[in-house]
Amino acid sequence: MAGEVSTPGPARALGTWIARFARDIRDLSTASPARFAVLVFTALILVFTGLLSLPAAAADGRATPFVDALFTAVSTVCVTGLATVDMAAHWSAFGHVIIYVGVNVGGMGVLTLASIMGLVISKRLGLRAKLIAASDTNPLRAHAGPVNEGQTVRLGEVGQLLRTVALSTLVIEAVISVLLYPSILLAGIDPLTALWQAPYYAAMSFTNTGFTPNPGGLAPFAHDYVFLTTLMVSVFLGSIGFPVIYTLARHRWHVRRWSLHAKLTLITTVVLFLAGAVVFLTLEYANPKTFGSMDAFDTTFQSFFLSAMTRSGGFSVVNIGDLNGSSLVVGSMLMFVGGGSASTAGGIKVTTLAVLALAVWSEARGRPSVNAFGRRIPSDVQRVALSVVAWGATIVAASTITIAQITQAPIADVLFDVISAFGTVGLSTGLTAELPDPAAYVMAVTIFMGRIGTVTLAAAVAASSRSQLYTFPTERPIVG
């Protein structure tokens, strides 16, 4: 209209800033999925910390202290299961809903979830979205440079994988909920409460978190073998990883068509499960505080249950603090290994252990290459496996020393809880619930680094790799 003076409004400047910010985020997500994952996980943790700090999230209607809200948010989003508060008594119904949503978001993987949402909205996946989702299924993509797509799910299969992730999560948790519901009723819990506890247990088992909604944990179900077996199956399905579930869904019993990753994951998982059960049975059968007071069947069954849960499940029937010191060491070893890659489990991953074991075996046999099931494992995968173990051991050592110095607690208890945090397992000797605030922050950082993944963490803080057009002369130092 004539006579009006046009002035650049703040809305235009704000829109320009938002567009620039969105462009920077898109560029970051493609150029460095690892750093993008760290940022997204951090943002989610801050959001859930704010939600859990609300008075409505606590059962007593008072705001939860920041350190407890932050620790619970980290443990929830990183599907760990450690807690500094009584999870059953401290949180209100609203708080439990927040935790339930958090473990499902964290269990599927933030980047995978973002890609699934994009697939639902746009009905298609562009190259950018495929690259983001693919970084959740192959840690090697976190580095710059070419990636051998034959090592895991190919980019062309990412859309099918995402559908498998979403569908398997919904179907498995729904089936587990139905199977658990009768056992919860038989434990004396009223039908309405059991109606939400069943999906809660299903989510906590499939995501390998281990939180329990009722006081006393699994005490009401200590002799309900159907309930405990269902939990073990759910934990196993969550720990093998979505790429393995995808492979099994595509090829079922055609073992020859399984990927090398699927074969190594399943074989190593079963071997560790059986070996752990035998060792726990041997070490604890005479301990009156744990298995010594049980009959032969109970002792055997609980040995298998403990072996499954120390891998990443986080549930426990016996008091972990009552285990013999030798059993705590074995449990720490199992927790450090963890579950499968691109799964809800933590640790250095079973495929990392398998690759290193095959490399040691090949070296002992004098073979120039590492082979398995008619396939050669390239040297870059072996280097990543070594890096994962080195980073993991460094994180555990630094956290253990720091927390032991702060708390002056027994080093065996500190080491067990730190490895449980790094492996996102959730088992505790009782130390975590009594941590002072500084030690709780250190433990939260350990959980975060364990869930993000040592490869992703290393790639996120490292500078972009540069091409090198020359090589130095070779000289062999003495090792061993």
Automatic annotation (TrEMBL):
UniProt cross-references to InterPro entries, sorted A to Z: Cat_transpt
Q: What is its main location?
A: membrane
Can you supply a Gene Ontology BP term from the record?
Answer: metal ion transport
Q: Which GO terms describe its cellular component?
A: plasma membrane
Q: Which Pfam families match?
A: TrkH (PF02386)
Keywords, ordered alphabetically: Cell membrane, Ion transport, Membrane, Transmembrane, Transmembrane helix, Transport
Q: What GO molecular functions are on record for this protein? A: monoatomic cation transmembrane transporter activity
Name this protein carries in UniProt:
Ktr system potassium uptake protein B
Indicate the transmembrane segments per the record: 36-54, 66-85, 97-121, 164-189, 225-248, 260-283, 333-361, 381-402, 439-463
Taxonomy, superkingdom: Bacteria
Q: Where in the cell is it found?
A: Cell membrane
Membrane topology term reads: Multi-pass membrane protein
